[in-house]
Amino acid sequence: MQNRNLNRLSVETSNRSRHFWRLNRNGRSRKSTHATSRQKHGAGNGVASRQNKQESFEQAPMYVAVCTYMGFGIVTLFGYFRDFLRAVGLEKCNLAQEREEQKDFVPLYQDFENFYTRNLYMRVRDNWNRPICSLPGPVFDLMERVSDDYNWTFRFTGRTIPNVINMGSYNYLGFAENNADFLKTVADKVQQYGAGVCSTRQEIGNLSIHEELEQLVANFLGVESAMTFGMGFATNSMNIPALVGKGCLILSDELNHTSLILGARLSGATIRVFKHNNMHSLEKMLKEAICCGQPRTHRAWRKILIMVEGIYSMEGSVVRLPEVIALKKKYKAHLYLDEAHSIGAVGATGRGVTELFNVNPADVDVMMGTFTKSFGASGGYIAGKKELVDYLRCHSHSAVYASAMSPPVTEQIIRAIKCIMGKDGTTEGKGRIRQLAENTRYFRARLKEMGFIIYGNDDSPVVPVLLYMPGKVVAFAREMLQRKIGVVVVGFPATPITEARARFCVSAAHTRAMLNQVLHHLNEVGDLLCLKFSRRKRPSSCSLSEETDVGLDS
Amino acid sequence: MNVGTAHSEVNPNTRVMNSRGMWLSYILSIGLLHLILLSIPFASVPVVWTLTNLIHNLCMYLLLHTVKGTPFQTPDQGKARLLTHWEQMDYGVQFTASRKFLTVTPIVLYLLTSFYTKYDRVHFVVNTVSLLTVLIPKLPQLHGVRIFGINKY
């Protein structure tokens, strides 16, 4: 008992001291990040060392954190005050309440559980769930809605807000489009197969178009075989229980998506969480798992599965794939790579993070991805060795119980993959990938120049701009909508309390003019709301200046 | 509105006290309270210090040891519904840095108050009782204990 407390003491003090000395997440001071990464990986050889320099998680000045807490404190005080007014009867209560006759029963739910929802979220919820009435391309139309009672109810005025620039949809390669030529094959397949499948894959729902898609996905990724599922979230939550079970260990990254966490919990395996993208933490856990085994019996684990994502959608950071693979090989664990946001969006030909790092796809045991983001469709896939995929065809919950992917969606994915691979005879796919990479680099460079704090890797098309304070989050979203730009903002408790952000998703369909318009408005809103917290020197286009940038970070 | 969408933290309440700048904000808010009380024209310095101590301990008791549960729905089906914020901190692990900090601060405030009230008897009794109400619930032996069923549900 004593030792355990001492260990926790040392861990906690090291956390505090890390905060005190303003070290970044990986335990290295920002000042010496460049130096140590060079020492570790040698002078600029592989992609890994280049990547270390490109990811940044700059921390805002301390006064920003203090103001954030002040903001939450004031909102909480007002929340208690309004609750008091509602209880006394001075303010109308718009919430659902228990019936009069049941007021003396044991309460159905705890009032405090809804505190945040009714006192903070309700006041600002016009920034979420906005109804869209066109396809989610680079520009879209929003339905105009107003509220007469401070967002408790909405009503539509009947007008639409046309041509709002869309910076929130996962439309990385621009396949969410309405082009009649491109969609002709999809229309033909609806004629041929119908709109729905009306069965599961294992019963009568295995269509020839599914086999064609799976063959194509396997070719695209460079693996032996693949299997597709109708829903991206369900791909994770239904297949992880088929792969691991009790007696297995899952090492999952801190910032993994809810679908991965749900799948891990449903499987019944033991879950341990390692710090985000931190190879030391992962290695320590692997060593401890192999030395100590299962918790009470100390038997060896049946399987150790490392779960990481290609691009983390809330941070924009990219997984350190070569290092994870080296660790996996050293300790004989398995790797599950979720490429929901990275497939089609990174890599020279859109093959995802395996191509970005020049890693052999056979090194990743289970490659998973979704078709929702870069392919403009819906659904997910799992790819890998033939034995693995054949096993999943029999044992996956989704194959047995969920209905198969519908034919027009399947054809949309087929035509998107053929376009990316160049199999349709045009260079449209290559052009889109190049356009996405250019847009990403340009957008990120301009944002850094303007002085915003953005997270993540320079190659990732997901750009989170940190806003920090709850009031600014809301003001930002409303102000951008007034300027006809649609953004997605997230705050506490979906993010840590001091890291509320706006998430921009760059698309290949955005033209330079659109990006310039967005950047121009961002600049104005940034000045208006004082959002430019970055304290780094504004980088020039020459990358050399970043290496000499050691002065300002302390 | 989803809790834990961007991270796998089941209950964000457990990490709030460890976040960046929270300790500084806490100290600053005590200072602000003290300044506000000092601005009252007819209050003498010992009374102001005793009032600071009392109000601080009262707020700490209410926020950390009375209010139970989370202000949002967590994905663990409400495991923390009957736990106060002190019991939720760091998932119940004792002697973490934040817990030690929150234990030491009332003690330091008490020492300062004793000094500035010149160890007067009445002030001493009042301040000591107030300090005890804030220190005793923090003992690890009282984790999850509800005396006489007060604040149980």
Report on the architecture of this protein:
Chain A is of the alpha/beta class and 554 residues long. Chain A folds into 2 domains: 208 residues, Alpha-Beta Complex (Aspartate Aminotransferase, domain 1); 242 residues, Aspartate Aminotransferase, domain 2, CATH 3.40.640.10. Helix content of chain A is 43%, strand content 13%. In chain A, the strands form 3 sheets. A 7-stranded mixed β-sheet of chain A has the order 3-9-8-7-6-4-5, with helices on both faces. A 3-stranded mixed β-sheet of chain A has the order 1-2-11, covered by helices on one side. A 3-stranded antiparallel β-sheet of chain A has the order 10-13-12, covered by helices on one side. In chain A, helix 2 runs antiparallel to helix 3, helix 6 runs antiparallel to helix 15 and helix 10 runs parallel beside helix 11. The N terminus and C terminus of chain A are likely disordered. Chain B is globular. The relative contact order of chain B is 0.15. In chain B, helix 2 runs parallel beside helix 5 and helix 4 packs antiparallel against helix 5. Chain B contains 5 helices and no strands. With 153 residues, chain B is mostly helical. Chain B has one domain. Chains A and B meet through helix 1, helix 4 and helix 5 of A and helix 1 of B.
What would the keywords be for this entry?
heterodimer; A: about 550 residues; alpha/beta; Aspartate Aminotransferase, domain 1; Aspartate Aminotransferase, domain 2; globular; disordered N terminus; disordered C terminus; B: about 150 residues; mainly alpha; about 50% helix; ORMDL (chain B); ORM1-like protein (chain B); transmembrane helix (chain B); membrane (chain B); endoplasmic reticulum (chain B)
